[in-house]
């Protein structure tokens, strides 16, 4: 791993204009359209969005797990200089699990019920690292201890069904870390867990990430998780990136109407009056089958105008870190924000 | 006692014990899912029930719905024992809204049939009056009348949950048991459903038992909160006093682990440890002592007795009388 300053600054992951089309019987489903992202080592990017926004598809495309029928297209999708769209299956196999790893949402369905925890943990290392079983075993025990599992050695011979949900999720994390990946993608890693366990799993991930200087993509719809974990936030709606920026700016000055709407939907402890009416985003996500034009949020947007059907400009902050896609210029919706917080507080 | 003072729903020392077999030849062991729980719900109240998975929240809901009989103790509706009422009479008064609107609606039935089923079961009205009732209730939950001929698969998650709410309300129940009604929904839809539940409560004077692990939702909707741990209610208080000054160390830890959407605060460290105790062999003394930051020697051996005071109920040696 390169530790020099210049290497730290070049993104480990760089996506430019990623598009995923899925052929269906009703026509082409434009599931992901024109996504561009950069991620450096040690950084955490949270992708937020509702079901069907394409956040999981994006991560599967990165891992090369979309299957044969769906071919992602991109101007660039590089992981540490390796172009992923043209990489061979062999190259992808070498990257997956070794240099980039994924933690899935549901640990019960992503662990194999017929193999012991130990077998599944060690597989990654014997396969990629060419380590002996003895070494792999030692590493597995080390990592299980690191993720806070007591009696790690005896756990190795247990099967997934013998562990609780929280433990299984920690096994998933340990498994993803076996080969010290440089990029880790976690798809809703704590959604199925209790709040008490969620906080601890997230702490653990953040600590391990700092220690190993990994880049992390965390996919979630929980804005509380985003606020506490992310360095950068990418908000997705109906297959598009509508807003990206540093976490503090996204929460302090959300610019896209969808981001603003989302933040109004959640009760803020201590701020939202108990029992008051919460903000909503009426309507449903539009179908992405067939031609998709203009801003897809216009059907649910309170500020929708005829211009929303046309090409939508991208506004970027002077430093280029915060950007959003909307016909309204930055700041032009702020007056409305002041008004809405005035009523909800 | 006047009508107003009688709680609409009351649990008196309700205990539910299951017998769990461990392994093929294992001897069955008792698992106390609900342990000596007493709660009262006054008309128009929203009691939030919180706790980790496996603490007995859902068993409690099943007992309230009459789907499970308590091993001991009593469930009283309007002061009458539940055992004495038949299932049909009970269903007119208590209705559930479940977590997952994808599995709680029959996919082979259209929306009209789903919502009108309770009316049919109770032989209320004729086909014409049922049509009218369904139209009315659809309007109340904010769905257009045309969805009557749709099937659940043609609807979004939020619409399905509205159907589930319509089905629960068509019998005009007094008490609605909401078991995680918004946790399967997207953020933007979640707030719509919460607003709707709140509106309906005010309009029809409904009483809710609201089970959720989302504490922000509980804080927003509930008037009182009961915190459950390993089958026992360890603290019960008004929403204000619980969220402003929780007394039980477990309630405190739960509240601390909530991730509020405030960037820069980092991830809280609750010192709780991740291991939820085995309910078949619960720890001696106070069930919470192995995870409790303020555990004393006394907590390891002796179970705390509940203290009832102006703020509510608390079961902890720190607050022993």
Can you walk through the features of this model?
- The complex is a heterodimer of chains A (345) and B (321).
- Chain A is α/β, with parallel strands linked by helices.
- Chain A has a single domain (5-99, 179-344), classed as Rossmann fold (3-Layer(aba) Sandwich), CATH 3.40.50.
- Helices cover 35% and strands 21% of the residues of chain A.
- Chain A contains 13 helices and 13 strands.
- In chain A, helix 5 (117-129) packs across helix 6, helix 6 crosses helix 8 and helix 8 (165-177) packs parallel to helix 9 (195-212).
- The radius of gyration of chain A is 21 Å and the shape is globular.
- Chain A starts with a helix and ends with a helix.
- With 321 residues, chain B is α/β, with parallel strands linked by helices.
- Chain B has a single domain (9-310), classed as 3-Layer(aba) Sandwich (Rossmann fold), CATH 3.40.50.
- Chain B is 30% helix and 22% strand.
- Chain B has ten helices and twelve strands.
- Chain B has helices spanning 57-64, 87-93, 111-121, 127-140, 157-169, 187-204, 215-221, 239-244, 249-256, 297-301, and strands at 9-20, 29-41, 46-50, 72-77, 80-81, 94-97, 175-179, 207-211, 224-229, 232-238, 307-309, 312-314.
- An eight-stranded mixed sheet of chain B has the order 6-7-8-3-9-10-12-11, with helices on both faces.
- In chain B, strand 11 and strand 12 form a beta hairpin.
- In chain B, helix 3 packs across helix 4 (127-140), helix 3 (111-121) runs parallel beside helix 5 and helix 4 crosses helix 5 (157-169).
- The longest helix of chain B is centred in the middle third of the chain and has 18 residues, at 187-204.
- Chain B is globular.
- The model of chain B has no long low-confidence stretch (mean pLDDT 88).
